[in-house]
Each structure stands twice: as C-alpha cells, then as structure tokens.
Amino acid sequence: MNTKIHGEIVLRPEKNADMTGAVRKKDYVVAHSETGHDHILLGDCLVLEREGRDTLIQVEDDAKLFHKKTNTRHNDITVKNGIYRVLSKKTYNPYLKVIKKVRD
After folding, report:
1. pTM for this predicted structure
2. Residue-range domain boundaries for the chain
3. What is the C-alpha separation between 53 and 27, in angstroms, rounded?
4. Spatial CB neighbours of 70, under 8 Å, sequence gap ≥ 6
5. Model confidence over 47-95: pLDDT tens digits?
C-alpha cells in the first residue's frame, strides 16, 4: 500500500490501527471545500472521525478518490483496500512564521 496524494489531501497507509467505533459510509466526503469542490471517496468504507485527531478510513474494496469540480480537477485515483490516515498538506510562511493547511 502506497501513500495517496490528491490535491491537498494525503492518505497515508496505517498498520494495526484500532477502528473501534468506526461507522460504515458510502461515498464519503474526505475533505470539504468552501467552494463545493469536495474530495469524495467513492465506494464502501469504515470511517473513524476522532475529535482533535486525524480521521482513519478503512477501504474494504478498491475505491476511487474523486474531485467534485468541473474544471482543473485532480485526476481520480484508485485507493486499494486497507486502512489510511487522512492528512492535509501544510505550507510554511517563513516571513510570518505561520504553518497553514493547503487549500484548493
């Protein structure tokens, strides 16, 4: 299993993650966009959203990560079965000394 990068979203494979309390979802919105250009995981998965911590996703059958945008969208990517930690890319502004999440 490899790390998947889709725009500002990163899915990092996890081994031995505890999925206790995960909820079954279909076509899960991995990341919302203020402009409606959401990143959506098409397929069945288990999702563990944890307050103040990264979300974990368990893909049971191969799924597709889709960018809900009509122009200049990210290519769809296949996500193989397994458990992934959802991360966001970050950028550092050395002048302001600020770390910010990258946004589409």
Report:
1. 0.78
2. 4-101
3. 22
4. none
5. 998 877 889 999 988 999 888 766 656 778 899 999 999 987 555 567 7
What whole-number distance in Å separates Cα of residue 86 and Cα of residue 49?
10
Contact 22, 58 (CB under 8 A): yes
Distance from C-alpha of 27 to C-alpha of 78, rounded to nearest angstrom: 13
Distance CA 21, CA 62 (A): 22
DSSP secondary structure letter of residue 97: T
Q: How far apart are CA 4 and CA 8, in angstroms?
A: 11
> Tokens 């996890």 appear where?
14
